[in-house]
Write a structure and sequence with these properties.
This protein is an alpha+beta fold. The strands form 2 sheets. It has a 5-stranded mixed β-sheet with strand order 2-4-5-7-6, with helices on one face. Strands 1-3 form a two-stranded antiparallel ribbon. The chain has one domain: 2-Layer Sandwich (Muramoyl-pentapeptide Carboxypeptidase, domain 2), CATH 3.30.1380. The structure holds the ligand C[C@@H](N)C(=O)N[C@H](C)C(=O)O and zinc ion. Belongs to the peptidase M15D family. It catalyses: D-alanyl-D-alanine + H2O = 2 D-alanine. This is D-alanyl-D-alanine dipeptidase. Keywords: Cell wall biogenesis/degradation, Dipeptidase, Hydrolase, Metal-binding, Metalloprotease, Protease, Zinc.
Length: about 250
């Protein structure tokens, strides 16, 4: 009798595991950009060390861009328009699970963990990154229709780099910033600084023209820029405006 109960229990566990493996991925209502348009370059920063923490972030199991299906389809339109002008989109982050945001919050609470401070937030005290609007505790990314991205010349690729070298994300000389095949946007991605505010006047005329080109292309497809970060766009007509999802990125 005891043996058959154990057997039944094991069978139930096996069945539960099989069911959970059968769940569709990405979940209903979401799409993977690589499946819709493989020409869009992916440089998903939070899966590795090249980010403001200097280490992989919780919830990133693959270098994928998952977005709500309307946001993903709109981005494919943007890619077509960018291609006509000799550029491709390059994506740094898309859907961001709540566990990743919680990881940012834990990281921010550790005042001793400042490995990337000099290169990525040199002029902002770490404890003010949230209050100054550079990172959010409830992020639009977790609603699935927000994307961090740039424009790259067609045919180029992200160069290899040492994320821990003494880069300066605000340097006017591009060679001193993190190497990136992005066109010059005035600062590096995730450079938490006033110079990253989209309309900040102290960047070069070329960098401002490049930011405005990205903005025009994105707005034409229904996205809205966040004024504190030239790279951050949200689909205005987002399908899940009140839901913060927590499935992993893969
Ligand atoms: C962390 C940065 N890439 C970003 O997306 N910031 C905004 C404010 C957010 O966290 O939603
Ligand atoms: Zn963002």
């Amino acid at each position: 009798m005891a043996y058959s109960r154990i057997t039944l229990g094991i069978l139930l566990l096996v069945q539960m595991a099989a069911c959970s493996n059968d769940e569709p991925y990405p979940p209903e209502g979401f799409s993977s950009i690589a499946e819709l348009d493989a020409s869009i370059e992916l440089d998903i920063r939070y899966i590795g060390n090249n980010n403001f923490l200097g280490r992989p972030v919780a919830g990133y199991e693959g270098a994928a861009c998952i977005l709500s299906t309307p946001a993903a389809s709109a981005l494919v339109q943007v890619q077509r328009s960018a291609n006509e002008q000799g550029y491709s989109l390059k994506i740094y982050d898309c859907f961001r699970p709540q566990q990743a945001v919680d990881n940012f919050v834990r990281w921010a609470a550790d005042a001793d963990d400042v490995v990337m401070k000099a290169s990525m937030y040199p002029s902002v005290p770490k404890e003010e990154l949230f209050s100054r609007g550079y990172i959010a505790e409830r992020s639009g990314h977790s609603r699935g229709s927000t994307v961090d991205l740039t424009l790259v010349p067609l045919g180029t690729h992200q160069p290899q780099l040492d994320p821990f070298a003494p880069w300066d994300c605000r340097a006017s000389d591009e060679a001193l910033r993190f190497p990136d095949n992005s066109i010059d946007m005035g600062t590096s991605y995730d450079c938490f600084d006033v110079l990253s505010h989209t309309a900040h006047p102290a960047i070069s005329a070329q960098a401002m023209a490049n930011r405005l080109l990205l903005k025009e292309l994105m707005e034409a497809a229904g996205f809205e820029n966040y004024e504190n970060e030239w790279w951050h766009y949200t689909l205005q007509d987002e399908p899940f405006p009140d839901t913060f999802f927590d499935f992993p990125v893969r």
